[in-house]
Amino acid sequence: MKKRREQKNTAAIFLSVVALMWMMHTLTKNFVSDPDFTKLIAAKESFTADRSLWMFMLRAHIVLAVVSLLTGPIGAIRKIRLKSIAWHRWSGRIYVVSIVLNLIPGLYLSWFVTGSLTVAGFLVLNLLWLATTWLGYLHIRRKNLAKHRQWIVRSFFLTYANLTIHLLLPVSQYAIGLSYGASYALAVWGSMLLNLGLAEAVLRKKWLT
């Protein structure tokens, strides 16, 4: 029992460290190094969006995603959860609200990515992220703790999809030799499959539940 608890805490802390590092990278890259998203726009085959609105939506998407990455690990760390259930509940509420609100910029930005397969991938990813989060919320409202934890773990791993996309993109583009558009589509769809697969593995091992 003690060993299992240690495994749960180790897994949660590891994911928290990864989330923190990715948040720092994301904020530095998009708000300090390239605040006008010049490199991202240059990588696109075409750019038809209203630039001001697109940049506003992208910034909103990034900030809300960072909030999700920040609050998600708080709920996953058992010691914090047991020490203050109120803190756990409030961090959970913020997590859910940040993802629900992120649907708007997420869907908007999806229409302006390169390639129809990538567009479809981002639409599916955004809807899956919302659905898993909402199911987790509904189950805790119904006092079904086991189902709540299962769906929140799936939601939690989809929160890391952007990180996985940026890991898979250079692999498919430079190692496999695909075009940027094809690499991006593969990375988006691959991130969903990989992250949900990892979530199911974690659930079976009960590393976070």
TrEMBL record:
Coiled-coil segments: none
Transmembrane feature ranges: 12-32, 52-74, 94-113, 119-139, 151-169, 181-203
Signal peptide start-end: none
InterPro entries: DUF2306_membrane
Pfam family, one: DUF2306
Keywords for this protein: Membrane, Transmembrane, Transmembrane helix
The protein, known as: Predicted membrane protein
